[in-house]
Design goal:
The chain contains two helices and 30 strands. With 360 residues, the chain is mainly β. The radius of gyration is 26 Å and the shape is elongated.
Length: 360
């Protein structure tokens, strides 16, 4: 699902709220499932869950958090929003929309310099999210986890001055720390804000670019999925060994002037299943004699479960759901064509097999 979809979703959310006069003033709560949904407060702040992001229904709450701890090194320009539960196990990122007050922008700054900062509820350890403008009073960002979100102007941009201060491709911001009298802060950016690795396949995320001061150290939090490693240059490589839902990660570049955190999401998915084929298009069996289709060949992802599209195999024959092999000892004559479906989290593919059982 593209970032363009999220942009349309966020703008549609705002339009619906303004046009219908709907929304809850301070908080909203809703049970949302696989069909997706949204919660919108009266000022247009809220959260949108895309279809397919949740495997099962959960109750999501969005509420204004005027008492949230202020992010260090930043000036908040709107009421923070807290969304719970913290880890909703999203398979597709959600979109968080925040309202801001244009009159609260510090002198010398503009709306496009606003970034959405995210921190666990009750914490002041904020990290920036890739932020886009929604309209004249709203910004939005994608997130894989729920937290407290605040629309803010970062202080390094204030010290630079000018309309272009701190511009980082639609909202990838500097850290909320002022540089000291020595080296300037690092200024890192990855090629994208969301990455996907395929289970049991090599995966690489290139090192971030740095157009700021020298980097003394790079770190990542939380830990990457099993099989992936974070290198000293900020690149990620390895072979993920298990599926992992969309999660947010923060890479922090530091030197003697301070630190520059950059956030992105990463998930581990199954490889797409391209085709399924059996050694022969016909399985011929004889009553009373064991027979087997052999294990089918699967092109694409190595992981799949197998099932019949409909019907039941002749008595005495069975389908192995793990390998796709059909085998056994048939007890009555028949001739029937079956469709076998291989599926995993990325999709499915199918093959047709004629099963003929002859008299002995």
């Amino acid at each position: 699902m593209s970032s363009r979809w999220f942009a349309r979703a966020a703008l549609a959310l705002l339009a619906a709220m303004i046009g219908a006069g709907c929304g809850t003033r301070f908080n909203g709560s809703k049970t949302i499932g696989a069909e997706g949904g949204s919660i919108t407060l009266i000022d247009g702040s809220g959260v949108t869950i895309p279809p397919g992001a949740l495997a099962s229904p959960i109750t999501i709450t969005a509420q204004e958090a005027p008492g949230a701890l202020a992010p260090s090194g930043a000036i908040v320009v709107g009421t923070p929003l807290t969304v719970t539960p913290a880890d909703p196990q999203l398979s597709i990122p959600a979109t968080v929309t925040l309202a801001f007050d244009p009159s609260a922008l510090p002198a010398g700054t503009i709306e496009s310099q606003i970034v959405i900062l995210s921190a666990p509820a009750g914490s002041d350890r904020f990290v920036p999210l890739l932020t886009l403008m929604g309209d004249a009073t709203h910004v939005f960002a994608q997130t894989g986890q729920f937290a407290t979100f605040a629309a803010a102007i970062l202080q390094p941009e204030l010290s630079d001055g000018g309309d272009d201060a701190g511009s980082r491709d639609a909202g990838s911001p500097d850290a909320g720390l002022d540089a000291g009298p020595g080296n300037p802060l690092p200024h890192i950016a990855y090629a994208a804000s969301a990455f996907a690795c395929t289970r049991d396949a090599p995966c690489t995320v290139d090192a971030p670019l740095n157009d700021g001061g020298p980097i003394d150290s790079l770190s990542i939090a939380p830990a990457l999925p099993a099989g992936l490693a974070f290198a000293s240059d900020g690149s990620i490589s390895g072979t993920a060994t298990a599926l992992a839902p969309v999660a947010s990660f923060t890479v922090t570049a530091a030197n003697d002037a301070g630190a520059d955190p950059v956030a992105f999401t990463l998930t581990v998915v199954d490889g797409a299943l391209l085709s399924l084929s059996y050694p022969s298009s016909t399985l011929t069996c004889t009553i009373g004699t064991r027979c087997s289709s052999g294990v089918p060949s699967l092109e694409g992802g190595p992981y799949a479960t197998f099932a019949l599209a409909s019907g039941s195999l002749p008595a005495g024959l069975s389908l192995d759901p793990s390998s796709g092999e059909i085998s056994g000892t048939a007890s009555s004559a028949s001739s029937q064509r079956f469709e076998i479906i291989a599926s995993n989290s990325a999709g499915s593919t199918a093959a047709s097999l004629l099963v003929v059982v002859n008299n002995g």
